[in-house]
Amino acid sequence: xxxxxxxxxxxxxxxxxxxxxxxxxxxxxxxxxxxxxxxxxxxxxxxxxxxxxxxxxxxxxxxxxxxxxxxxxxxxxxxxxxxxxxxxxxxxxxxxxxxxxxxxxxxx
Length: 108
Prior knowledge:
Blueprint: H1 2-52, H2 59-62, E1 74-77, E2 83-91, E3 96-105
Antiparallel strand pairs: 1-2, 2-3
């Protein structure tokens, strides 16, 4: 009886450790793939800031206000100092009212 209990405990432990390893690998792999996708956006935002010499507050200030012909990508600093990169999808006479893709680049 004692041997069966020990065998069951070891088997359960092995199963749990395997599950934890698979979960850890999945999280790491997802983060790595996201980082690879975000790297060009981070580079573009940093390059944009270097070429502008300062962070612009609005798209209109940049002369990059989205139009029907030019829908992005557009870069701007948020109030917290992070970059917002987006593609515009909706327009009216005064403002852009939608975005198809929004990335928050969490590097102040």
